[in-house]
Amino acid sequence: MIKLNKKSKKLLLLQRNELLTQKQNLLRKKLGRLLFTNIFVNFFQNKNLEQITEDLFSKEIETFKNFLPKSAHNIMDIGCGLGIININLNKIYNNKPNFFLLDKNRIDKKIKYGFSSKYESYNDLNETKNLLRDNNIKDSCIHIYDVDKKIQITNNIDLVISLKSMGYHYPFEIYLELLKLCCTRDTKFIFDVSTDNYNENLFKNYFESIKIIYEEKSIQSLKRLYCENLRI
Ligand SMILES: C[S@@+](CC[C@H](N)C(=O)[O-])C[C@H]1O[C@@H](n2cnc3c(N)ncnc32)[C@H](O)[C@@H]1O
Question: How many domains does the structure of the chain reveal?
């Protein structure tokens, strides 16, 4: 079972509102997200949060497991949050990959969700590192990057993943230059785009092959893309 400490539970609830029931989500709307999360974590803690989290990310994997490359030495997760999906990927690839995890390293006071070029941040990269370490990813395989600082990655990335982050909350283009530097023609990409902001013709300028592999309808609907052959 996945191991979460109190701080990671709080961050996770900010990053993934699917973990709350409908009633809890309503209460959250009334109280505001940060106040609700603080109260929830301290007093009404959901004893099953570990199980619910494990189920959620197992479901996520199901949506794209048929598109994963056979082998992956270097995996990049953009907007990784706590990086939980990488625990699943680590198991699939037999504890071998290096993980390059990118996110901001702060929690903004006013959290607004949606799509914007100045998207809010709610993560703590130390927690990401601790969580992955506690869940059997080797320390030497965890490479964390604060995106507000200059990022240099010299490894060739085999798989780029971004769930509910790049292309969904903020424009994909923010990372295009970095991707061109550390990806090859063989790199595979799995990431979500916000349905309302997705323009397939635009993405055809970036990739030779684009497939929609999953769709989710919600307040902010998404399309999950599988892309190959980044035009470098
Ligand atoms: C909805 S959460 C998803 C987290 C994780 N990918 C998951 O599947 O649970 C969105 C994440 O994007 C991060 N984020 C916001 N702006 C970002 C940016 N410009 N670059 C990278 N990450 C960003 C947030 O801090 C947050 O951790």
Answer: 1
pLDDT of residue 190: 98
Q: Is the CB of 103 under 6 A from ligand 1?
A: yes
E strands in the chain: 74-78, 98-103, 142-146, 157-162, 183-194, 207-216, 222-230
Provide the residue range defining the domain that includes 129. 68-230
Q: What is the pLDDT of residues 58-86, one digit of tens each?
A: 999 999 999 999 999 999 999 999 999 99
Residues with Cβ within 8 Å of residue 178, at least 6 apart in sequence: 151, 153
Residue that has been written with the tokens 């991707």 in this structure: 179
Ligand 1 atom with minimal separation from the 57 CA: 8
CATH number at residue 127: 3.40.50.150
Judge whether 216 lies within some domain: yes
